[in-house]
Amino acid sequence: MNSLDFFNARLEATISPMDFVKSAKLHPEKYFLVDVRNGPSEFKKVTIKDAQMIPEQDLPNRLNDIPKDKEIIVYCWDVWCNTAAKAAKFLLENGYQVKELTGGIAAWREMNFPVSACTEGATDKDHCGC
């Protein structure tokens, strides 16, 4: 793979927080945003506004909760976490159209975009799984 192929593939597989906000305002019905973070609930006090909480480790049992007619946007903790990449790969293998939100919730919060208090907490047995 050459550099051009790499960057084309990267742009096809990801969306920045700024681009997502812009596109979701124009086409809110197009997207299904999923917080795939694993980990203890005390670390997941906020989520991106309107995101569905489906931890990556629960995806195999929750596919019926994810619509196939929307573009799925997944995110995890930050740029160092690969949980969203694992989730995206799994969803792609199962026939979904998926992109990873670059920078995760850390980038989202850094840009002061809207967040909500988490409504679906994980249990203490959960782990990051990065």
Automatic annotation (TrEMBL):
Q: Which SUPFAM superfamilies does UniProt cross-reference here?
A: Rhodanese/Cell cycle control phosphatase
Q: Which PROSITE patterns match?
A: RHODANESE_3 (PS50206)
Q: Which Gene3D superfamilies match?
A: Rhodanese-like domain
Coiled coil region boundaries: none
**For the Rhodanese domain, which residue ranges apply?**
27-117
Q: Which PANTHER family match?
A: FAD-DEPENDENT OXIDOREDUCTASE, PYRIDINE NUCLEOTIDE-DISULPHIDE OXIDOREDUCTASE
Task: Please give the name of this protein.
Answer: ArsR family transcriptional regulator
